[in-house]
Amino acid sequence: MKYAYYPGCSVKSTMKEYEESAKAISKVLELELVEIPDWNCCGSIDAIYSFKPLYAVALAARNLALAEKMQMDVTTLCSACYYALARTNKILKEAPGIKSKVDDALRNAGLTYNGGVRVRHFAEVLLSDTGLEKIKEKLKVPLTSLKVASYYGCFMVRPPNICNFDNAEHPKRLDELVETLGAAKVDYYGKTRCCGGSLDITDEEIMLKMSRAIFLSAKSAGANCMTTACTMCHLNLDAFQKNVESRFDIGIDLPVFHFTQLIGLAFGIEPKQLGLNRNCVSPKKVLSSTVAQP
Amino acid sequence: MSHEKDKLSAEAKNIPQGERKESRKAFIKEVMKMPGGEKILECIQCGSCAGGCPTRFAMDYSPMQIIKMINLGMREEVLLSSTIWVCSTCYTCTTRCPREVNFTMLMMSLKNEAIRKNLVKDGVNAKFHKYFFEVINKYGRMYEPELFFKLLDKTDVYSLRHSASLGLRMLRKGKMPIKAPKIEQTPWVSKMLEKTDEKGV
Fold it and tell me: Looking at the partner chain, which of A59, A160, A193 has a beta carbon nearest the beta carbon of B95?
């Protein structure tokens, strides 16, 4: 299967390992990710939209216009990009006033967009198109030492009329994936609770409190690691984990995997190829009895 | 911020009652035209939004209160509230609202309104949106170091030390870009802006 691949800014800078691992498992599963040529920022959910809404929609529409030429579904790794791109179709369809202005703007950039591109999260592509059966076939190293708290965050499941990867209140598809990979799933309160990703820069204190609530509920439910499917969530839970620990003087020490890294490990792919050395919280301890060291 | 509020309420007191009523009605009408505000009159004050909100603890007014305040025409109080800036746009309220009020989208629209009316308290909030936009318009993609440097408060030692340690952590992992990104069509992306700006947003 071939997909128009929208990387998004984070995947090329602060979340390189997410792309590395996604590409490694795509190879095994015979998925072809064709990068949209000359893609730009998705327009962001709120950062640009609150400042210049029309420009934000035009930014997203430019990516979709570029993808429309490729005649494939668009897939992206970042939940935030996923929502920003997916909502654009709805906005353009429901607000003809905005559509005509965005069309004008696109024409200025030498492009047109007819609204025909389907936007999908990479997790949905893997679980719906490829399917758990095929993933099971490729399984080499069951991840038996892991007790995984799957973190869905916001934009995989909300708002449900656009982001419909799973049930908005009780999602379970990532948990099913985790079990397929031989690990134990952990049910916990915080799985769809917002981690505060959009407040990283503007209000760190609030963000740290939000992330703490998620860590504590995952830990008290018995998790020894977490998995995410979003660049912003991963940044918060992994790179900022040390900040939560020092701010509230608590020990957390929960390694956070991208869901693609877990699949890669179970496929027996070298940890380095999955970028595990780039994770801020070291996963060595929880993996020691399962796989070779990163 | 309190100074701005005092000034605004003093101004409000000088307006004759009839006019005040008109201005209240005008605010509701304005909000109903904003993305997210369409169904604001349908709210039944059930509190699902406030109950599920993960940042309620840091807000001065809860989402439910903000809706009531809009329906009472309390323009200044709404636009100067911390609520609109503390919202993390997680869509929990919108998902749970039984009357289909898109409160999350409304928060973004009200931020936009507050920025345009220059009703923003001091601090990093409005700057963040402005600088984020500037970086994207310059490069076409995000360039994190430039955004951080623009936002860095050089007088605040704690935040300097803190940002430096996070930056180093990312750099050590090879996850902090050194070179700025550039897309081929960057000038065209800016041209898109001219076109959208022209038409009044």
Answer: A160
